């Protein structure tokens, strides 16, 4: 069944989009991630322009993270003060990201910038996850205990000034790296249409030494607000948010996430990390291959305005 998307300006197969949403939702539920870094590339691969894909997925990410953030809030499994300071940087990063997004679109380099960003980010993160997952599996096969990372040790970050005490996370930390990390995640989210949880969670755990009990909930709060702000800004400044597309993705995503969460409980953690790393790496390589393919049309004409 075909459905016309008004903002994307093309007809799409509703069942295909629903299946994509369900597949990404399944992966999100299985691995405990947002899934925006997979949804945006899949939409681009089906013919939707990168600009519309990024802007529409931000609304999908905001909606999908709302229930999760609310659940963690009720269970007191997040740090409100840490989330607030992360959000201070996240809002600024989102504003900069949307400005940079609009600038790249105005000079006709947006599609290339998005593709290169995905190639760099996904191949790096995916490669590191594959390497770490393979090491964990080999250690398990040899009967060796998993490598335990010392989360209580101090680093140079803990010596920075302007420290405050985060009572829920039980850490004493400078606000400077917290704001900087929020700014980075907000910028990446606005430019690439990703929640950034798969980057933020490891940074909070291994760099800032935040306890895992509060990390995921805090990450979801940041994702919720930065993606909500990015959605509004993209809609107002660029008029690229396709509400119909986002609604279809949400329906499929919510359904798939329920099955993914059950499947994830039956697979060992090191196998999950390896599978996720392979998936991320494959998407990054797919983007890289597409950049090297000679297009059918070397030149395109884009309408930028109508003169009176």
Describe the structure.
The protein is mainly alpha-helical and 308 residues long. Helices cover 69% and strands 5% of the residues. The strands form 2 sheets. Strands 1-2 form a two-stranded antiparallel ribbon. Helix 5 runs antiparallel to helix 10 and helix 7 (197-206) packs antiparallel against helix 8 (212-238). The N and C termini lie far apart (40 Å).
Spell out the helices and strands N to C.
EEHHHHHEEHHHHH
Gap from first CA to last CA: 40 Å
Secondary-structure-based class equals: mainly alpha
Q: Proportion of β residues?
A: 5-15%
Largest sheet: 2 strands, antiparallel
List the helices and strands and how they pair.
Layout: E1 2-5, E2 10-13, H1 14-31, H2 36-45, H3 50-74, H4 80-106, H5 110-141, E3 163-166, E4 171-174, H6 175-192, H7 197-206, H8 212-238, H9 243-264, H10 269-292
Antiparallel strand pairs: 1-2, 3-4
Helix pairs in contact: 1-2, 1-9, 2-3, 3-8, 3-9, 4-6, 4-8, 5-10, 6-8, 7-8
């Amino acid at each position: 069944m075909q459905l016309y998307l008004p903002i994307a300006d093309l007809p799409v197969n509703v069942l295909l989009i629903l299946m994509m949403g369900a597949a990404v939702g399944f992966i999100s539920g299985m691995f405990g991630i947002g899934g925006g870094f997979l949804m945006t590339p899949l939409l681009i691969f089906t013919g939707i322009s990168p600009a519309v894909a990024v802007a529409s997925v931000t609304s999908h990410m905001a909606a999908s993270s709302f229930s999760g953030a609310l659940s963690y809030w009720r269970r007191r499994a997040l740090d409100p003060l840490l989330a607030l300071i992360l959000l201070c940087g996240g809002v600024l990063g989102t504003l900069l990201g949307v400005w940079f997004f609009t600038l790249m679109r105005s000079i006709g380099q947006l599609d290339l910038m998005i593709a290169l960003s995905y190639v760099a980010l996904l191949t790096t993160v995916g490669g590191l996850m594959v390497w770490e997952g393979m090491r964990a599996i080999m250690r398990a096969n040899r009967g060796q205990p998993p490598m335990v990372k010392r989360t209580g040790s101090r680093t140079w970050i803990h010596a920075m000034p302007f420290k405050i005490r985060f009572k829920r996370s039980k850490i004493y930390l400078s606000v400077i790296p917290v704001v900087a990390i929020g700014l980075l995640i907000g910028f990446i989210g606005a430019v690439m249409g990703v929640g950034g949880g798969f980057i933020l969670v490891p940074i909070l755990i291994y760099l800032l030494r935040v306890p895992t009990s509060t990390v995921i909930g805090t990450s979801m709060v940041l994702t919720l607000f930065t993606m909500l702000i990015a959605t509004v800004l993209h809609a107002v400044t660029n008029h690229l948010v396709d509400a119909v597309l986002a609604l279809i993705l949400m329906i499929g995503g919510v359904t798939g996430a329920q099955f993914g969460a059950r499947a994830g409980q039956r697979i060992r953690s090191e196998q999950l990390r390896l599978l996720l790393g392979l998936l991320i790496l494959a998407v990054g390589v797919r983007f890289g291959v597409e950049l090297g393919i000679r297009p059918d049309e070397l030149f395109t004409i884009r309408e930028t305005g109508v003169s009176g």
